[in-house]
């Protein structure tokens, strides 16, 4: 079942059926208020834009930024770099346990330090 909610004419709050205060002005204009506080401020002619708890103030001062879809960040993408893992493991003194466990032998390529030694000859 869908409930028809209305908005308070002063604060901008949602008003569910059976709640709120309805005021009809002399020119037959209908105002619906969420609470007696909203009704009192309306009749005292206070501006909702000057009260920090109203929706008008929050919209003017950009307080509800998380509701706007314009400021969505782009998805995080990872930059891939190519690394010779066997060379780095060999130079650090560790063996690739996973490849040895499954019987796979990685291609043995000379590391950067041994490559410079080979080029020296």
TrEMBL record:
An individual GO BP term: cytoplasmic translation
Gene3D superfamilies in the cross-refs: Ribosomal protein L24e
What CDD domains is this protein classified in? Ribosomal_L24e_L24 (cd00472)
Region (Disordered) location: 92-121
Tell me which domain of life the UniProt entry assigns to the organism this sequence originates from.
Eukaryota
Pfam families found in the cross-reference section: Ribosomal_L24e (PF01246)
One annotated GO molecular function is:
structural constituent of ribosome
Signal peptide stretch: none
Q: Which residues form the TRASH domain?
A: 8-46
Which residue intervals are annotated with compositional bias (Polar residues) in the record? 111-121
Keywords, sorted A to Z: Ribonucleoprotein, Ribosomal protein
Q: Which SMART domains match?
A: TRASH
- What is any one of the record's Gene Ontology cellular component terms? cytosolic large ribosomal subunit
What is the similarity comment for this entry?
A: Belongs to the eukaryotic ribosomal protein eL24 family.
Name of the protein described by the UniProt record = TRASH domain-containing protein
According to its UniProt entry, this protein's organism is: Vanilla planifolia
């Amino acid at each position: 079942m869908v409930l028809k909610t209305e908005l308070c004419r002063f604060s901008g709050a949602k008003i569910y059926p059976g709640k709120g205060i309805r005021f009809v002005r002399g020119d037959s204009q209908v105002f619906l208020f969420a609470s007696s506080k909203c009704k009192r401020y309306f009749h005292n002619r206070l501006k909702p834009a000057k009260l920090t708890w109203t929706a008008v103030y929050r919209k003017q001062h950009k307080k509800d930024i998380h509701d706007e879809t314009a400021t969505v960040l782009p998805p995080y993408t990872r930059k891939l770099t190519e690394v010779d893992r066997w060379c780095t493991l060999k130079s650090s003194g560790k063996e690739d346990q996973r490849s040895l466990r499954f019987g796979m032998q990685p291609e043995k390529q000379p590391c950067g330090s041994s490559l410079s030694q080979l080029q020296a000859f």
